[in-house]
């Protein structure tokens, strides 16, 4: 079972083995946390992401952390909310599970997540927090996982879901 913590803060400043990026399918830095991670990691990240040739929604790919305090960045494109009838919940669950699998494959012991798909992708925050929390808590490997919430609303939603 994963050990699960929730903090409020900036994921680009967290000292862990891997941070997870709420990426787009092109793995090209966008808005929100994705853009923040790309800016903080530096231009080498853009080049590394181009070599990965994108990533399907719910899957996860890994790059070095470059200028971040994390050794690795695990990129996972979350689902865009289309009302909940387009497999969004399963795709979001897959984001968390596949990211945790990539962490284990890369011998990571500590992983930090943002709230995936709850920004510009409009996934309802409370529902996303419940899906994320269950996926992390049910992952059967000894990892220390931290949910890094950028704002108070997100922090409160994850505390309630935990």
UniProtKB/TrEMBL annotation:
InterPro entries: Macro_dom, Macro_dom-like. Residues 1-162 form the Macro domain. SMART domains: A1pp. Gene3D superfamilies: Leucine Aminopeptidase, subunit E, domain 1 (3.40.220.10). Pfam families: Macro. This is Macro domain-containing protein. It comes from Lentilactobacillus diolivorans.
């Amino acid at each position: 079972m994963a050990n699960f913590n929730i903090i409020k803060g900036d994921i680009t400043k967290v000292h862990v083995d891997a941070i997870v990026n709420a990426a787009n399918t092109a793995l090209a830095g966008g808005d929100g946390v994705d853009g923040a991670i790309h800016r903080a990691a530096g231009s080498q990240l853009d080049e590394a992401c181009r070599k990965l040739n994108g990533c399907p929604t719910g899957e996860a790919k890994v790059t070095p952390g470059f200028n971040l305090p994390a050794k690795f960045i695990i990129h996972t494109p979350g689902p865009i909310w289309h009302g909940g009838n387009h497999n969004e919940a399963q795709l979001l669950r897959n984001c968390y599970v596949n990211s945790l699998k990539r962490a284990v494959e890369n011998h990571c012991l500590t992983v930090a997540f943002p709230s995936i798909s709850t920004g510009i992708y409009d996934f309802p925050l409370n529902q996303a927090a419940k899906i994320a929390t269950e996926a992390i808590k049910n992952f059967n490997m000894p990892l220390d996982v931290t949910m890094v919430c950028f704002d108070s609303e997100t922090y409160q939603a994850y505390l309630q879901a935990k």
